[in-house]
User: What shape does this take?
Amino acid sequence: MTDQPILRLRGVNKSFGAVHVLDDVDFEAYAGKVTALVGDNGAGKSTLVKCIGGTYPIDSGSYEFDGSPVHVSGPRDAAALGVEIVYQDLALCENLDVVQNMFLGRERMRGVVLDEESMEIAASQTLTSLSVRTLKSVRQRVSSLSGGQRQTVAIAKAALWKSRVVILDEPTAALGVAQTAQVLDLVRRLADQGVAVILISHNMLDVLQVADRIAVLYLGRMAATVDRADVNQTQVVELITTGRSGDLGIQPATASAGVSI
Assistant: This one.
């Protein structure tokens, strides 16, 4: 962990036709810390994530990684930097087992056949390093796993490939209390391994429990980026809904400006 962000966006703008979705957005993610990205529906969170992941090219602004400017023209460029996005649908194949899903598209070969043994060992070691104990076997089919277990596999997959920035899109959506607690513990352990975790969530209890920093988008603008210890739930909700809370947030004269989708 360092004082310098591993990922830094400065003055990022993104428009779709006449609709200005991101307006001079600054955003940072630090190794070893969980940065929660929050905002109401239409605040621009998904667009910002897709710009980070290379799905959308930014119109203007800078994208820095490890302190150096980079050009991300597609998902392959972002992946090469070590940026991994775990979307809400997880993108797991239910007919494959845990090992096969963790190595999907990156299988190890021994000659002309799959190196099943080394892949199984690597998958098991990764799950062990994250203190995952909820899986009976790495050879279980994903179709037999619970929602929390599937999230565990998706997050462990990102850890397996030594991702340096992992973006988690609503990882606790539709999970029960016990499974939510397990996933949040896993998020914390992932950050403790030195990964920069970006957590997107509408659940303020989850955000306040696990985040080190909170970045609030409001109508396509970054209303505030604050340390979790410096704010309470009421302040975060006010920032999300009005773009301002006390001395925090967008200045009153411009709080209503901007349109986003």
Remarks:
- Helices lie at 45-52, 75-81, 98-102, 116-129, 147-160, 177-192, 204-210, 233-242.
- The mean pLDDT is 92.
- The longest strand covers residues 19-29.
